[in-house]
Amino acid sequence: MLKNDIHHAVEILRRGGLVAFPTETVYGLGADASNPEAVDKIFQAKNRPRNHPLIVHIGSREDLFAWSSSVPPMALLLAEAFWPGPLTLILKKAPHVSLGVTGGQNTIGLRMPNHPVALELLREFGSGIAGPSANRFQRISPTSREAVIEELENAIDLVLEGGDCQVGVESTIVDVSTKIPVILRPGIITADEISEVLGMPLGDKKINSPKVSGSHRVHYAPKTKTIVMSRAEMENGLVAEKKTALLLLSALNVENASVFMMPNNAKAYAKVLYHTLRDVDKKGFEQIVIESLPLNSEWEAVRDRVGRAGVCC
Ligand code: TXA
Ligand code: MG
Description:
By secondary structure, the protein is of the alpha/beta class.
């Protein structure tokens, strides 16, 4: 059988199985969003608490109306500007959407991904595919087919091939279910870009906002102890006498450490971050030290993920 037999993938989804699929952000673990038993298999496979809602992937902007009971003009503007693409919209759910998908909430996360394999799968399946990142709970999201197999091989019926993910970190999540839109998770599409399309400032994330698994303090974490450190701290010899992997933005000579040079550009950094962490994690280092990142807004998503991978300074 071909790796990418879309008909076979659709057959598996129709009978309630799990198909991992590539997107431009990270690989997703897909199930038929209208089949509660299939959706439950996702939670089992990932060992994810059932109150953490799943994103439903859709194949067209018009599908917004099939999954949400109330699509405000803001949602249409954002879908028009950024879909297909790395943006998830939180909206009021349609009555038929099961609480299993939404983690018990009356809202739903919807995204039209920008990857030819995902779009073909959605088109052939003809309905929504629930899909969290295809990793075990609190681990690094997979950005290649091999990484999905490493994470979840025994729990999945089929893993589609789509090459390395071009974005490399998860989608920006914006809640448009209330009057003032709020970013719940930063991504490569920035708050400024969203605010510009909407022509209004965004609200602050509420303290009691819904459970968002990506908002856990420890998330996207390697197994090796990971620390974020400023360049000044590194230069002052704060890298301890341990066998260390250093992820740097520019060269620095540190005794005992193996240096991994990272791109000095936020988008390029995002693309290789998870792959690098996964790779370094296998090399038997006692600690990973990541150089702290620039503070400007284009780096926000990467800063967020790096901060959650380790103990931030
Ligand atoms: O880029 C992505 O978003 C990837 C790809 C596969 O599409 N998916 C992804 O899914 O990152 P997951 O489950 O790992 O993260 C989805 C996030 C979770 O933090 C979840 O809590 C949040 O979306 N979410 C989903 N529905 C929500 C809702 N109704 N209200 C608030 N947050 C929601
Ligand atoms: Mg995830």
